[in-house]
Specification:
Elements (H helix, E strand, L loop, with lengths): L1 E4 L2 H4 L4 H13 L3 E4 L16 H18 L3 E2 L3 H15 L17 E2 L1 H8 L1 H7 L10 E4 L8 H4 L9 H8 L18 H4 L1 H17 L4 E4 L2 H9 L1 H8 L7 E3 H8 L5 H5 L8 H5 L4
Parallel strand pairs: 1-2, 1-3, 3-4, 5-6, 6-7
Helix pairs in contact: 2-13, 3-4, 5-8, 6-8, 10-12
C-alpha cells in the first residue's frame, strides 16, 4: 500500500521523533510513505492569522502536489491537517487562490495517520505485529482540538469522542482509560501569547488524566505533545503540584509494541522523562 506523506515543518524539527516513529511503523505495516516532492510550509499559524488568501494559497500549493500524485495524503501534524482540510474545502467551493494556476480535482483523501492506520489495518493486523504487549500501561488518548473539529472542516464522524488512537492502543494490549477530555484544548499556540491561560488548560488535562487512572498520555499532534511534555515544571511552579506524566506519540507506542530498536532514541527527545514507566513494566 502506498500513500502520499506531508510531514510539515514540525516533523522536520521539534517533532522529529514523531516523523521517525511513523516511518518505522509504516515499514512494519508494509505501508509506503511517499513524501510530497518540494512540499512547503502550509502557513500554520502565521499565515491564517495574517491573510485568508495567503493561508489558502500556501496550503493549496501542497494540495496541487498531492493531486498530481493521486494518492491519499497522510498529514500527521494536527495544525497542518486543519489548514490543508480548510484549503481543500475552499478549493472545492470554487475559490481561486493567488499564485495557484493548476486545476484542482481533489480525488484523494486527506487523513490523519491514526485514522488511516486504524481504518486500513484494524485490530487483527495491528495485534498481529505486536512483539511486546503494552498490557501493563494505562494511558488516556488525547486528540486535542484540530484533528476532529470543526467537523465541517475535518469531516470527522465522531468529533467529540474520536476512537482511532484508543482502538490502536487497545490492539497493542494497553488498558486504555476512558475520559471526557480527549478533545479539550491544551492552549495550542496560546502558550506563547497567553501563557498563564495555557498553563491552566494544561493543568486541567493532567488532573483529569490522573483522575481517570492514567499513567501516561498518548497524542497525535506535535503542538499538543509540546505543551504537555514541556510545561510540567511550569505548572509545578504555578501551583506547587508536581506532575511526572510521560507524553507519548501513538506511533512511538506502536513502534515499542512492534519491537522497533530506535524507541529509546525517540524518547530521549522528550523533556518529561518517558522511559522509567516503560522500564518498570519491562518494555525497555
Amino acid at each position: 500500500m502506498k500513500v502520499s506523506y506531508y510531514p510539515g515543518c514540525s516533523l522536520e524539527g521539534t517533532a522529529r521523533e514523531y516523523d521517525e516513529s511513523l516511518k518505522a511503523v509504516a515499514r512494519s505495516l508494509d505501508l509506503e510513505l511517499a513524501e510530497l516532492p518540494d512540499w512547503t510550509c502550509c502557513g500554520s499559524s502565521s499565515a491564517h492569522v495574517t491573510s485568508d488568501q495567503l493561508a489558502i494559497s500556501l496550503a493549496a500549493r501542497n494540495l496541487i502536489l498531492a493531486d498530481k500524485a493521486g494518492l491519499d495524503l497522510l498529514v500527521p501534524c494536527a495544525a497542518c491537517f486543519q489548514r490543508l482540510k480548510a484549503a481543500e474545502k475552499a478549493l472545492k467551493s470554487g475559490v481561486k487562490p493567488e499564485g495557484v494556476k493548476e486545476k484542482y480535482t481533489g480525488n484523494f483523501k486527506i487523513i490523519h495517520p491514526a485514522d488511516f492506520i486504524w481504518e486500513q489495518f484494524g485490530e487483527k493486523v495491528i495485534a498481529g505485529r505486536v512483539k511486546k504487549s503494552l498490557e501493563k500501561l494505562n494511558p488516556v488518548c488525547y486528540y486535542g482540538c484540530l484533528i476532529t473539529r470543526p467537523p465541517r472542516i475535518t469531516d470527522s464522524t465522531n468529533p467529540e469522542d474520536p476512537q482511532s488512537m484508543d482502538e490502536i492502543m487497545k490492539a497493542l494490549g494497553a488498558s486504555v482509560k476512558n475520559w471526557s477530555f480527549k478533545t479539550d484544548c491544551c492552549g495550542g499556540n496560546l502558550v506563547l501569547t497567553h501563557t498563564e491561560l495555557a498553563r491552566k488548560l494544561i493543568k486541567k488535562l493532567f488532573d483529569m488524566a490522573l483522575e481517570a487512572g492514567a499513567d501516561s498520555i498518548v497524542v497525535g499532534c506535535p503542538m499538543c505533545h509540546s505543551n504537555l511534555d514541556t510545561r510540567q515544571k511550569e505548572v509545578l511552579q504555578d501551583n506547587g503540584q508536581a506532575y511526572h506524566i510521560p507524553i507519548y506519540y501513538f506511533s512511538e507506542m506502536m513502534g515499542l509494541a512492534f519491537g522497533e530498536m530506535a524507541v529509546e532514541k525517540w524518547l530521549n527527545k522528550h523533556l518529561t522523562e518517558a522511559k522509567s514507566l516503560l522500564k518498570q513494566n519491562n518494555l525497555l
